[in-house]
Amino acid sequence: MAGRFIGIGVGPGDPELITLKAVKALQAADIICIPKSHANKPSLAFTMVKNILDQRKQPAEILELIFPMTKDELGNKALWTKNAGIIAEKVASGKVIAFITLGDPMFYSTFIYLYQSLKEEYPKLHLEIIPGVTSLTACAASAKIPLAEKEEVVSVIPSDFDTKLIEETAKHADNLVFIKCAYRLKELIPIVERSGFKENSTIALVRRCTMPEEEVLVGKLSDVQNWNICEDYFSVAIIKKRAFISDKL
Ligand SMILES: C[S@@+](CC[C@H](N)C(=O)[O-])C[C@H]1O[C@@H](n2cnc3c(N)ncnc32)[C@H](O)[C@@H]1O
């Protein structure tokens, strides 16, 4: 049988928030490829699919690949190319490889780097992508705050973005989503207020969404300076320009 590479979104945390298509692919793949930022760090994505893998009659081969979270572009590129080579060789030998990634593979995911390297180096490789529930929509559901209605514009902003650019982007949006935000949330409030968001605009901060440790804070922008914020990488803030009465308030 022809080999192929499948990028699978495993959802935001709750193992039940995974598509049927993803489950079937995980049950059938020859190899499960797990991206890790460090060899000694456990993979959250793997924890989420472990139950599905444990139920297989024939265990899959596990392939761990390291994708360090650094800004060294040249070093990273060399590593992605190396990882792409490992995958391409296995696909050429007829294996089906399932690459698991948190949330959705096409939304700020390690998968995208690998996908690009594979396309550059092995353009004929058979590749599929199975979407997943993103942290974006999962956090909106946990906070019980809509991401957008009617004509509203939503902007998604990585929080280490330059302050001026955040201010400029926020001017053109009705709703903002900040990812990687917990460490900087208090500093972001005056920035978005300069862009037209108000003291009574609604904000939600969701940490470890749909995981057992989930924490949801909902309030007004003016409340945030009094919040006791846990600086967890797995945090998303949603800010709505208009005040919204969430079930969580
Ligand atoms: C590299 S991005 C990965 C996004 C992922 N591909 C997705 O579709 O949600 C990592 C950021 O996503 C957000 N994130 C991912 N999972 C989350 C969760 N369960 N709860 C809160 N934030 C999460 C955090 O802002 C984190 O810093």
- What fraction, in percent, of the residue positions are helical? 25-40%
Q: What name is given to the CATH topology of the largest domain?
A: Cobalt-precorrin-4 Transmethylase, domain 1
Provide the CATH top-level class of the largest domain: Alpha Beta
Number of strands: 10
Ligand catalogue: S-adenosylmethionine
CATH architecture of the largest domain: 3-Layer(aba) Sandwich
Give me the CATH superfamily of the largest domain.
Tetrapyrrole methylase, N-terminal domain
- Category from helices, strands and their pairing: alpha/beta
Major β-sheet profile: 5 strands, parallel
N-to-C SSE string, H for helix and E for strand? EHEHEHEHEHEHEHEEE
Order the strands across the largest sheet as they lie in space.
3-2-4-1-5
Distance between the termini: 54 Å
Number of helices: 7
Number of domains: 2
Instruction: Report the portion of residues in β strands.
Output: 15-25%
Instruction: Report Rg.
Output: 20 Å
Question: Quick check: average pLDDT?
Answer: 95
Principal-axes geometry comes out as elongated
Instruction: Give the uncertain stretches in residue-range form.
Output: none
